[in-house]
From TrEMBL:
Species annotation: Mizugakiibacter sediminis
GO term, biological process aspect, one: iron-sulfur cluster assembly
Domain of life, per lineage: Bacteria
Family: Belongs to the BolA/IbaG family.
PANTHER family: BOLA-LIKE PROTEIN 1, PTHR46230
Name of the protein: Cell division protein BolA
Keywords: Cell cycle, Cell division
Keyword Secreted listed: no
Length: 88
């Protein structure tokens, strides 16, 4: 697939979780000197009805399930901020 990493992450999460909002942030520049010179370090902020009634760990598992086969070749580290609609 010819999509860049951020676009691929966005596409996978959108398909799996139908988010109301989704932000994918490349944080590679914060990790220069780490494995792969920081490539593959991302943060996602996602609001989805799929998270309603779920614990934080269940929410993270849903995100990881959407991205699972991207680890470790294309995705090295992922920070997740997952909320249900209406949560602050």
């Amino acid at each position: 697939m010819s999509l860049d990493r951020a676009a691929l992450i966005r596409e996978r999460i959108a398909a799996a979780l139908a988010p109301q909002t989704l932000e994918v942030i490349d944080e590679g520049h914060l990790h220069v000197g780490h494995a792969g010179e920081g490539k593959g370090h991302f943060r996602v902020r996602v609001v989805s009805a799929a998270f309603t009634g779920k614990t934080p760990i269940q929410r993270h598992r849903l995100v990881y399930a959407a991205l699972g086969d991207l680890f470790p070749e294309r995705l090295h580290a992922l920070a997740i901020e997952a909320r249900a609609p209406g949560e602050g």
